[in-house]
Amino acid sequence: MRILITNDDGINAPGLEALYDIATEVAGPGGEVWTVAPAFEQSGVAHCISFVHPTMIAELGPRRFAAEGSPADCVLAALGHVMADALPDLVLSGVNRGNNSGENAMYSGTIGGAMEAALQGIPAIALSQYMGIGTAQLADPFEGSRKHGPEVIRKLLAHDVWGHGDDFRLFYNVNFPPCDAASVLGVQVAPQGRRQDVRFEVEAYDAPNGRRFLWVLGGPQTGPATPDSDVDANMKGYVSITPMRPDLTCHDSMTKLRGAFQQG
């Protein structure tokens, strides 16, 4: 198996090192793991692409490349250039330092990388490690994802439901709970949830030269969330798996909306 890995924390992130180990185990002795990751941190860039300027790419070692762009750029660079002669069988994005459950999924560059792979017709999984009190004192905060990641990926591959034909292909959002590997209680398939009263905000800062800057701040990650959602599962000690697709249509509103515009 040929696996492409990327992330949004950057080419030197410890989570990417963890993902390399996970991917190597999944690929097996005869497999290959290729890395095309951002040269610099790209957290929060979602599914953006560098549409109006070129992306510089550098080979850092065998099957290891850094691109000055977003995770989606990195996937495009891999499929269109680095691995163009033999495309990957699977794209893994992560392991993100911090969860991409709930509303975080909408901002995530980790998910953006997996989404781009799905748009290109390649099976893809985004993986993120929830951080918290349970991981703060660990020698390896990615212990849970290292331990349980390979089995989760293998089961998703065996399940083999990715979407085909002209439809938007599925990809999977996997979040590991904020605890050590031994404390993980299992796996739950759960929908994307939302933390109550949690939104991104900005905080102003006045520099000594008089210029004003704005810092983007995230909200608390441990508050109450939608019951039986990905956030809820993670906070209870479970790995969450959420099937997603690059389709933002609210299908359950279509009939009612059509009726409103067909009246009179």
Automatic annotation (TrEMBL):
Residues annotated as domain Survival protein SurE-like phosphatase/nucleotidase: 3-196
Subcellular location: Cytoplasm
Role noted for this protein: Nucleotidase that shows phosphatase activity on nucleoside 5'-monophosphates.
Residues annotated as binding a divalent metal cation: 8-9, 43, 96
InterPro entries recorded: SurE, SurE-like_Pase/nucleotidase, SurE-like_sf
GO terms, molecular function: 3'-nucleotidase activity; 5'-nucleotidase activity; exopolyphosphatase activity; metal ion binding; nucleotide binding
UniProt-recorded name of the protein: 5'-nucleotidase SurE
Top-level taxon: Bacteria
Record keywords, A-Z: Cytoplasm, Hydrolase, Metal-binding, Nucleotide-binding
Cofactor dependency: a divalent metal cation
Any one annotated GO CC term: cytoplasm
Cofactor note: Binds 1 divalent metal cation per subunit.
Entry EC number(s): 3.1.3.5
Main location: cytoplasm
PANTHER family documented for this protein: 5'-NUCLEOTIDASE SURE, 5'_3'-NUCLEOTIDASE SURE
Catalytic activity: a ribonucleoside 5'-phosphate + H2O = a ribonucleoside + phosphate
Family the entry assigns: Belongs to the SurE nucleotidase family.
Pfam families reported for this sequence: SurE
SUPFAM superfamilies noted in UniProt: SurE-like (SSF64167)
